[in-house]
Design a protein that fits this description.
This protein has a single domain (2-98), classed as Alpha-Beta Plaits (2-Layer Sandwich). Helices cover 42% and strands 26% of the residues. It has helices spanning 13-34, 59-67, 88-98, and strands at residues 2-6, 39-44, 49-53, 71-72, 75-76, 78-83. The protein has a 4-stranded antiparallel sheet. It has a two-stranded antiparallel ribbon with strand order 4-5. A hairpin with a 4-residue loop joins strand 2 (39-44) and strand 3. The radius of gyration is 13 Å and the shape is globular.
Length: 99
């Protein structure tokens, strides 16, 4: 899943992942969060893009959770899902085509 971070502030990779885990846990609990298989693949602070891996069954859970994010570390943000793909290779290709 490719995510775009919409913020005027600088967001670090750890800050981003902490916020994603926090919102998923808050909405779906620890049991729901454990089913996501959430892993950071790549994070580019300059282009404000994040590539994360989630299980296919949990993609809707993660999409709903990141849509509710309004703050990361006290900084106002918006997170938008820009692409979803079955493989990381295809996801990277779709993100490159978009840019």
């Amino acid at each position: 899943m490719a995510l775009e971070i919409d913020s005027t502030e600088t967001i670090e990779a750890k800050e981003f992942m902490d916020a994603v885990w926090s919102v998923i846990t808050r909405l779906y609990g620890e049991h729901g969060a454990s089913k996501t298989g959430l892993t950071m693949i790549d994070y580019n602070m300059e282009s404000k893009l994040a590539l994360i891996r989630v299980t296919n069954a949990a993609s809707d859970i993660v999409r709903a959770a990141v849509a509710t994010m309004t703050k990361m570390g006290g900084k106002p943000v918006g997170v938008h899902v820009i692409a979803v793909s079955g493989t990381i290779r295809a996801l990277c290709k779709r993100v490159r085509q978009r840019q």
